[in-house]
Amino acid sequence: MKRTIPGILLAVGWLLLLVKGSFLLFWAVVVLIGIIGAREYCRMSFAHILYESDRMLLSVILALPILAAVFAQHPAFSGSFGIVLGFCALIAYILYNFSRFDSPLSILNRGALGILFIGFLGSHLVLIRALPDGANWLVILSAVTAGSDTLAYYVGSRWGRRKLCPHISPNKTVEGALGGIGGGMLAAVLFSLLFTVPAGLPAILLLALVLSIVGMLGDLLESVIKRGSGSKDSGSLLGGHGGILDRVDSLILAAPILFYIICYSGF
């Protein structure tokens, strides 16, 4: 119950934001999520390396692509603008503090990964929301990643035998991954009946298959970061659910895939 009730409340709140919230409200919430997620990333990646004040500043720098995405509805906006802005800010930060870093290249590498993982990937949630059917697409995307995570955990815990990536995430199994793909596809079909998008059933199933697999890659990517920093969870903000990154890792990697498929497929 400690995980179930907060999970339901989070899901209902996210659904209400997508269905009833304005573009600017959605952008503001994603910015907040991005900054909190960036704080968790900085605590893991820069523990015992940087001061807390440095990590707070870097949290904002890492989230700059999401901040810049407020212009997503403007015809001249390019999604690459935000990542260039964030990278320039990171370079300026390192140059200004260069003399007090033992390994400036390590700061640059970890910071660049954070801009890409948190800021650039996360900004695509805002880019999708700016599309004509963006809110409905985000509902389906969220349903795919949530359905995949839920069924992967259920199937893996009951019938999982073969390890998927034992050196990265020992609890994940091949059986769980297959169950997760099935869960994502089932959720996509159900929610596409309630939140219509300009795509037929075959396209929805194919999208769900791709997004479920990509979402698992996002989960494993965060596991690599946690294992590298010796962290069990990205944070404790959500209690039994861990931190913000533990909840959105699948979503933010799948979001760019969905965005570019929508843009270039004619949906």
Task: Describe it.
With 267 residues, the protein is mainly α. The chain folds into 2 domains: 26-130, no CATH class; 135-267, no CATH class. It contains 10 helices and 2 strands, in the order H-H-H-H-H-H-H-E-E-H-H-H. The protein has helices spanning 4-20, 23-45, 52-62, 64-68, 80-96, 104-129, 134-159, 174-194, 201-229, 244-265; strands at residues 163-165, 169-173. It has a two-stranded antiparallel sheet. A hairpin with a 3-residue loop joins strand 1 and strand 2 (169-173). Helix 6 (104-129) crosses helix 7 and helix 7 (134-159) crosses helix 9 (201-229). It is globular.
Helix-strand layout with pairing:
Elements: H1 4-20, H2 23-45, H3 52-62, H4 64-68, H5 80-96, H6 104-129, H7 134-159, E1 163-165, E2 169-173, H8 174-194, H9 201-229, H10 244-265
Antiparallel strand pairs: 1-2
List keywords for this structure.
single chain, 267 residues, mainly alpha, 2 domains, two-stranded antiparallel sheet, 10 helices, 2 strands, 74% helix
